[in-house]
Design a protein that fits this description.
Radius of gyration: 22 Å
Oligomer: single chain
Distance between the termini: 57 Å
Number of strands: 15
Order of helices and strands: EEEEEEHHEEHHHHHEHEEEHHEEHHHHHE
Shape: globular
Structural class: alpha+beta
Helix content: 40-55%
Largest sheet: 7 strands, mixed
Length: about 425
């Protein structure tokens, strides 16, 4: 069994990528001396993938399908893999987002037995009608909880105006109405389409033997590889502002910036750097907004890649969200005209490098970061190279188009 061996320069760690004969790609990061070991199965299937072609057949399914499979895959006819993994000393969890479904565990001992159970769980589905009907009530309660969460609502509303009538405009778990439409046969149809070896990545990290981990993954038996084509989405937004009253003492807001295509690591770092220079904690704009109580806590920025496109989101809290949005756009325009000072670029880059060093000291952070990267064909070495090679010229070039008015959207919860 051959592997591509790379070196993670920031931590000095060896990094192995196995392309198994089954078609699964295995990312293994040994961390000698660490007590915790973690494994994660990442399926390239998320809430944005509700329309697709399977063997030339057009398929469109209710919202929330990927999340529903995430819930049900733990349960089989005569056993619960959640219970079995927990009984073997593992902490177990799973999540679904726009692009992927991930199942993972962490443990101090019994790693290979737990990895074997994880692979058996994702390779052998069991969806029965009674189990599906019982699960609907659980998921609908979860959706109701989301609907009452202002932080969730402000983000959900932002996507409704940025990507109208697309899968992104729906809650990841779907709605009460869409969940009621889901049948066991639908779950099998989606499983057949997306839970195939060429669509699955396995990430293992900790004090483990790389080849033994890869051999454990290799034993899992999946069905045939199918031809799946995700349906592209394109629709122009009809408005750039949305507000909802939930009785908050102080408004919270999301400022969205919509981009084209998928952002590779180098563009993500450049965009995050521009945000830090414009309104991060060390910026003049942040200090001014905070001193005038226009914002009451630090602004947070995130970039999300999806099959529908990429977008950035600035989250904040304060009485004048529109003023904050306009200030960020105006400051970005001034920055692009004046060019970023080299000393400021070096300061922020140094801070980013420190953050990456910190990431490699956490088993969970390593796995979660690789999960985000592998879904779009990247790995941890791409992240390292992108940050190391990030230049002032590339950041200056992106500053001209990063935070501009015609890309901007505002969602407020009062």
């Amino acid at each position: 069994m051959e592997a591509i061996k790379k070196k993670l320069r920031f931590s000095g760690t060896d990094f192995y990528i196995y392309k198994l004969s089954s078609g699964i790609k295995c990312y293994i990061i040994p961390k000698d001396g660490f007590k915790i070991k973690e494994a994660m199965a990442v399926v390239n299937f998320g809430s944005a993938d509700s329309s697709f072609k399977l063997n030339s057949q057009e398929i469109s399914l209710p919202a929330g399908m990927a999340h529903f499979i995430e819930h049900k895959l733990f349960d089989k006819r005569d056993r619960s893999f959640f219970n079995d993994l927990s009984a073997n000393g593992a902490y177990v969890n799973a999540f679904t987002d726009f692009n992927k479904t991930a199942y993972y565990f962490s443990c101090q001992s019994g790693f290979y037995d737990n990895l074997d159970m994880l692979m058996e769980m994702i390779s052998k589905p069991y969806f029965d009608n009674d189990g599906v009907e019982n699960e609907k009530n659980i998921i609908k309660s979860e959706i109701s909880m989301y609907n009452d969460n202002p932080q969730r609502a402000v983000f959900s509303n932002l996507l409704k105006i940025m990507y109208p009538k697309s899968p992104l405009s729906h809650e990841v778990a779907g709605s009460h109405e869409s969940v009621d439409k889901i049948k066991a046969s639908d779950l099998y149809k989606c499983y057949e389409a997306f839970y195939t070896p060429n669509n699955i990545s396995i990430i293992c990290c900790g004090d483990i033997e790389p080849e033994l981990a890869a051999l454990t993954v290799q034993k899992a038996e999946f069905g045939d590889i199918n031809s799946v084509l995700k349906t592209p989405y394109s629709r122009m937004p009809e408005r750039d502002y949305i507000s909802k009253n939930m009785g908050l003492s102080e408004p919270i807001f999301n400022i969205g910036f919509k981009y084209d295509g998928i952002f590779p690591p180098e563009k993500i770092y450049a965009l995050k750097m521009i945000f830090e220079l414009i309104c991060g904690k060390g910026s003049k704009l942040y200090e001014r907004l905070l001193n005038k109580q226009i914002i009451t806590e630090p602004l947070v920025f995130d970039i999300i890649n999806t099959s529908c496109g990429s977008f950035g989101v600035i989250s904040g809290k304060g009485p004048k969200p529109a003023y904050v949005a306009n200030s960020i756009i105006k400051t970005a325009q001034l920055l692009s005209m004046d060019s970023i000072p080299e000393y400021a670029f070096k300061r922020v880059k140094k801070a980013f490098l420190g953050g990456v060093y910190g990431c490699f000291n956490s088993i969970d952070s390593i796995c979660m970061t690789q999960a985000e990267l592998s879904n779009f064909g990247f790995d941890l070495t791409h992240m390292e190279n992108a940050l190391e090679n990030l230049s002032l010229n590339s950041v200056n070039g992106m500053a001209k188009t990063a935070f501009v008015r015609d890309r901007a959207f505002l969602s407020i919860i009062k």
